[in-house]
């Protein structure tokens, strides 16, 4: 018995049961079988399987391709399509969802097993590569000379580098997995009102976003630090947003210089007027 869980999405019950028997004979577990796209989305969220076998044609008004698109919006789960249709339009739509395999019905157990093993192997390699990349990125971010906070796609904090820890007052272990709004609190310098956190803007729009000049960071100890902020999305090879990186800079020194310059200018004006 392996640890992998495979969910079956198939609207023909007899076919679904045959696939289930085959999977269990291969040593996989089957947490559930569903026949509609709506149920597939819900069960994927609940069971978080390692792989989904998705029939393209399903009962109801949502086919397997559309269900896969929605699942991929919320969960990073590989999908193998099962279909009796091989027309170019269907294949083109399916390719856009980056499936891990495409099996034409009717199929033999050997073909099913081979596709599953290849998909799970590719997935394992992706995870290994992702872990290596994360370790490399974390090492880089921890040693860079700017304050940086990274989050996942839900806006939960994953990394707070040393300079960001100093400015926010939160250590890495305290901030980890908390909503970024709790760690990175910003207000408008002029109004004192809370400013929309750049993370949500980046997640919603999938693009760079900045806050400048009038933004103030409120630390855990209630220290006020004027900052410039730049947020950017983290995307995978399928252009899906996996998280964000927020880079911010303490601009206190710049503010002091600007203030001194303004005071000097006003003082000069007054002297000039007095001499006249």
Automatic annotation (TrEMBL):
Transmembrane segments: none annotated. Gene3D superfamilies: 3.40.50.2300, PAS domain. Residues 133-206 form the PAS domain. Keywords: Kinase, Phosphoprotein, Transferase. Residues 5-120 form the Response regulatory domain. InterPro entries: Bact_response_regulator (IPR050595), CheY-like_superfamily (IPR011006), PAS (IPR000014), PAS-assoc_C (IPR000700), PAS-like_dom_sf (IPR035965), PAS_4 (IPR013656), Sig_transdc_resp-reg_receiver (IPR001789). This is Histidine kinase. It comes from Methanolobus halotolerans. One of its GO terms (molecular function) is kinase activity. The modification 4-aspartylphosphate is found at residue 55. Residues 211-263 form the PAC domain. It comes from the Archaea. Signal peptide: none annotated. It holds the Pfam family PAS_4. The keyword Phosphoprotein applies. GO terms for biological process: phosphorelay signal transduction system.
């Amino acid at each position: 018995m392996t640890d992998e869980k495979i969910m079956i999405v198939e609207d023909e019950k007899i076919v679904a049961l045959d696939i289930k028997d085959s999977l269990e004979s291969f040593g996989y577990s089957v947490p559930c079988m569903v026949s509609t796209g709506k149920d597939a989305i819900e069960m994927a969220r609940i069971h978080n399987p390692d792989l989904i076998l998705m029939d393209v044609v399903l009962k109801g008004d949502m086919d397997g391709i559309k269900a896969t698109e929605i699942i991929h919006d919320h969960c990073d789960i590989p999908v193998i399509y099962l279909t009796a249709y091989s027309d170019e339009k269907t294949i083109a739509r399916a390719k856009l969802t980056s499936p891990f395999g495409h099996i034409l019905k009717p199929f033999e157990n050997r073909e099913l097993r081979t596709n599953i093993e290849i998909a799970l192997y590719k997935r394992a390699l992706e995870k290994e590569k992702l872990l290596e990349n994360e370790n490399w990125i974390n090492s880089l971010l921890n040693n860079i000379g700017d304050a940086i906070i990274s989050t996942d796609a839900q806006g939960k904090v994953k990394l707070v580098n040393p300079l960001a820890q100093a400015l926010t007052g939160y250590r890495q272990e305290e901030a980890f997995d908390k909503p970024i709004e709790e760690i990175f609190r910003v207000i408008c310098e002029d109004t004192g009102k809370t400013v929309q956190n750049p993370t949500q803007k980046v997640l919603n729009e999938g693009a760079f976003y900045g806050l400048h000049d009038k933004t103030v960071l409120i630390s855990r100890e209630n220290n006020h630090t004027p900052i410039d902020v730049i947020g950017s999305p983290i995307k995978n090879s399928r252009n899906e947003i996996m998280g964000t990186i927020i880079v911010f800079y303490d601009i206190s020194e710049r503010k002091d210089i600007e203030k001194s310059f303004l005071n000097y200018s006003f003082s000069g004006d007054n002297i000039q007027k007095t001499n006249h």
